[in-house]
Amino acid sequence: MKSLEDIIKQNREEFDTEIPSELLWNNIHANLHKHKSSFAWKPYMAAASIMIFIMGTWLIANYKFDSKNSTVAQSAIPNEVKEAQVQFASLIELKRTELNSYRDAHPELINEFDKQLTELKQNYSGLLPQLKDANKRDIVLQAVIENLQMQVNILNQQIEIINQLKTQQNETNNPIQL
Question: What are the pLDDT digits (tens) for 116-133?
Fold first, then answer.
């Protein structure tokens, strides 16, 4: 039994008797060029790929750096201090929520308060990596606790200022009538 290839090779001349019309070739040629886009995507795709790579690398590096610092700092903190941190953090968050309720009435004052707290938080974040130094551990722990206490005290003072402003505003709006 002959294979199909052998049959085609032997009868090649019989198959090549018909020649396609010129119109058919023109249609094929027109359809081939019809789907080509005039817009060059390659440079944009290359730039997008590079940006994705850079952003991915940056995100991974930041994640590893943050988790490394957090792990070192958290492992260096005794359980008693961790419990105090949780208590202070919840108290601070409660006070911040109370302060934020006054943001519409006194936005510039609340923004100033936020700047003060941000500075304390930055100091706090700077103290945590120092906990791994065993020589300064007690001093740094005391500084961490004092920082958290200062944050709570500042929030309390800020709430007191807001309450005084509210009281003054109420007195000017509702004078005492005799």
Answer: 888 888 888 888 788 777
Residue 157 within a domain: yes
- Residue 131 shares a structural domain with residue 47: no
H, E, C per residue of 28-82:
HHHHHHHCCCCCCCHHHHHHHHHHHHHHHHHHHHHHHHHHHHHHHHHHCCCHHHH
Residue found by looking up tokens 């019809």 in the block: 34
Residues 68 and 138 in one domain: no
Q: Which two tokens stand for residue 58?
A: 């940056």
Within-domain flag for 122? yes
CB 162, CB 106: distance < 8 Å: yes
Q: Using an 8 Å Cβ cutoff, are 109 and 157 in contact?
A: no
Within this chain, do residues 67 and 95 fall inside the same structural domain, yes or no?
no
The per-residue pLDDT for range 30-52, each reduced to its tens digit, is 877 666 566 677 788 888 888 88
Average pLDDT over all residues of the chain: 77
